[in-house]
Amino acid sequence: MRDIVKKVIAGDVRTVARLISDIDDGLPEAWEILKRLYPHTGNAYIIGITGAPGVGKSTLVDQMVGLFRERDLTVGVLAIDPTSPFSGGAILGDRIRMQRHSMDKEVYLRSMATRGYFGGLSRSTRCAIDVLDAMGKDIILVETVGVGQDEVDIVKSADTTIVVVIPGMGDEVQAIKAGILEVGDIFVINKSDRDGAEATHNDLQNMISLAQQKYSRKNWVPPIVKTQAVQGEGLSALIEEIDRHKHRLHAEAAAGKAARKTEQIREVLAEMLKDRILEKVLDSLVRTGDFDRTVEAITDGKLDPYTACDKLLQDKLNAGFQK
Amino acid sequence: MRDIVKKVIAGDVRTVARLISDIDDGLPEAWEILKRLYPHTGNAYIIGITGAPGVGKSTLVDQMVGLFRERDLTVGVLAIDPTSPFSGGAILGDRIRMQRHSMDKEVYLRSMATRGYFGGLSRSTRCAIDVLDAMGKDIILVETVGVGQDEVDIVKSADTTIVVVIPGMGDEVQAIKAGILEVGDIFVINKSDRDGAEATHNDLQNMISLAQQKYSRKNWVPPIVKTQAVQGEGLSALIEEIDRHKHRLHAEAAAGKAARKTEQIREVLAEMLKDRILEKVLDSLVRTGDFDRTVEAITDGKLDPYTACDKLLQDKLNAGFQK
Known about the structure:
Chain A has 323 residues and is of the alpha/beta class. Helices cover 56% and strands 11% of the residues of chain A. In chain A, helix 5 links the parallel strand 2 (75-80) and strand 3 (107-112). Chains A and B meet through helix 3, helix 7, helix 9, helix 12 and helix 13 of A and helix 3, helix 7, helix 9, helix 12 and helix 13 of B.
């Protein structure tokens, strides 16, 4: 185990890949290794990128990797797809995406698409971020597909979160939901040469103003950056905004106002607890056959699911919780 | 309590509205009422409708309601928005949507958008379906916004699930994720007068074939229906496909192959257990201050989150689970 920890810290790509698979599979050994890696984390800057499918996130990420590499920063990329049960497809996708950087040893790319029966992708992502952080990446880009609650949970781990939209997606006001607005630090209008870019810009501006009022954030007004990722246009403006946001966070931290960090730790811990509790309790119910027997009783109409749920938990939790 | 149960069964709209709010708020009384309502459920036919924002789901639902009403069927509509924390907005939306049916006593429309700190929207939805079922609705339409895992979980409760897309949404192959393909019983290409409808049709057809192979479903090949919901075009073809799917399910059930029903009960029970466990365990950790103390220790660098998680759960769960 100490050997694995050492290899990860030394940046050994095969060990890292194996470890992330083990995390994905929920192996207990991986959990122990994460405990030992944690003291080596905290140096990477984490950037989350989210947005609906088809807005060009992968191309943006690819271009960003190029610009960070020009600065001699090492980069890790995690591409997370909560809706796809095909991890094979995701890994195949890696080879197609980002071919440009595939020979660059300082860039590590990894897709995560699996999702255990009882959830947990945002925890796995958090763990994978810790691994890439411990392996010494300066920048970690976490790209998620989609704009659901899963994605919001995942990008909450980021220092800077980028929300990508394109012009003319129909109801823009519908397309970017409030949860995403709350977490967005920078908004990108990609494919900004398309019709409707100005309308999208105005819509976004209005929504940002509303969100600022609602969440009463005063110290950071999310900027909107127009890009055409395929041509690389607008990319340096985007990187500048990331830098500006990073400096803001550092200034806040220096002034002792690290509220965001504490909030992130709250989220991470709550997330981990959730997954671990479910693993322990549900696994135990499944293993003992209680779960299947109960499903059968409900199917046969002998029990309603509400009473069944109460009964199962009463037996399991009371001993630990009644006091 | 018996009074509330009676009123729900009698179809009293105000009691139903109040009960669904109580379910959303997680009141323990609501849970007890659900136990008593459950024996009165099982008569409604549940149709799930999902798809990205802007594809015209609301208009489709509105038209479907009209057609079911022509058959003298009573209809309940649940509009679920997992990504929006603004329940006020959702309820306001109700008044704008479906004005056509607002005077019809046999149509009940309800939005759900709240999401507790520890999740649980798909459980709330399942409970609300039971309420509308118990109140005597023949058809329950469950409309979700988005195509994430939340939406997949929600539509899993449906007897027939409809996935709605529109032509020219960019990468169609990306836009409909595998999870959605797995649950789709009928696919609708709405706004089918737009450019690219044929290409979208071909893409869908290919994806359905692949999914059929992957999940080795042989007894039902999801049909693709082209609609223009605003004009009402294609709607009767859609209703026909729903009927056809319903007959298939009934034939299977009659032949003793009610695998789908059992699978749904498994899902529902697992979902309920998850939420209730989290409520009990996390609430207890928060209430005792253990959670906050642990967050502080991690923030101060005295503890890593992995070890912290193990410690918290060890104390809480061991008594009930060690044996």
